[in-house]
Specification:
Strand content of chain A: over 45%
Oligomer: heterodimer
Helix content of chain A: under 10%
Shape of chain A: globular
Number of helices of chain B: 0
Shape of chain B: globular
Number of strands of chain B: 11
Order of helices and strands of chain B: EEEEEEEEEEE
Order of helices and strands of chain A: EEEEEEEEEEE
Structural class of chain B: mainly beta
Structural class of chain A: mainly beta
Number of strands of chain A: 11
Radius of gyration of chain A: 14 Å
Helix content of chain B: under 10%
Number of helices of chain A: 0
Largest interface: A-B, 26 and 21 residues
Distance between the termini of chain B: 41 Å
């Protein structure tokens, strides 16, 4: 257990439905990342938060995807009007932004596996 | 475009031998190169980080080298054990950048 939790662990939905995933990072970590991973591939960067500010978004994050991190604590990732191509593992990771601590190590959660039927 | 290449074929080795995994990259000048381990159905776990001005880093049975001229990193596991069987991911990040790019990973099988 890395200390990063994600909920739910599994989600099955029908095409066209909206889904929302939650990530609770390690409490003192101010940096938070979302990734998407498909079978046989490495994690693909989606978006990055520093505290509550969303500082970078991948071009992969279409307008159907939105992420928030209110108050700089937990984060949510919402996918609207899901498509079968959205089926993947969605991973959250957090990182300590304080110099002198293990600065670059990302701690990953267990992921949410999404299946779109 | 930026690209990371790792051995797509699985690596099979005998227990006790040294496993060597390769990470090559193009169109990128990373400040940091990281290696992660991922077990099936789980998130990646950080193993080692090496900076662009470092040639080699060691941690217990693990060793990473970083050649910015060749644009290559080698990851070694000495005295390998069946418990080392997993997928190993290479990841790159720029200084001041937020985005970390991961390779597809190499699957390692260590036979007893």
């Amino acid at each position: 257990d890395t200390g990063v939790s994600q909920d739910p662990r599994h989600k099955i939905t029908k095409r066209g439905q909206n889904v929302t995933f939650r990530c609770d990072p390690i409490s003192e970590h101010n940096r938070l990342y979302w990734y998407r991973q498909t079978l046989g591939q490495g994690p693909e960067f989606l978006t990055y938060f520093q505290n509550e500010a969303q500082l970078e978004k991948s071009r992969l994050l279409s307008d159907r995807f939105s992420a928030e991190r209110p108050k700089g604590s937990f984060s949510t990732l919402e996918i609207q009007r899901t498509e079968q191509g959205d089926s993947a593992m969605y991973l959250c990771a957090s990182r300590n932004g304080v110099s002198g601590k293990p600065y670059n190590e990302q701690f990953f959660g267990p992921g949410t596996r999404l299946t779109v039927l | 475009s930026q690209k990371i290449e790792q051995n797509s074929e699985a690596l099979n080795i005998q227990e006790g031998k040294t496993a060597t995994l390769t990470c090559n990259y193009t169109n990128y000048s990373p400040a940091y190169l990281q290696w992660y381990r991922q077990d099936p159905g789980r998130g990646p776990v950080f193993l080692l980080l090496i900076r662009e001005n470092e040639k080699e880093k060691r941690k217990e049975r693990l060793k990473v080298t970083f050649d910015t001229t060749l644009k290559q990193s080698l990851f070694h596991i000495t005295a390998s054990q069946p418990a080392d069987s997993a997928t190993y991911l290479c990841a790159l990040r720029n200084t001041g950048g937020f985005k970390t790019i991961f390779g597809a990973g190499t699957r390692l099988f260590v036979k007893a």
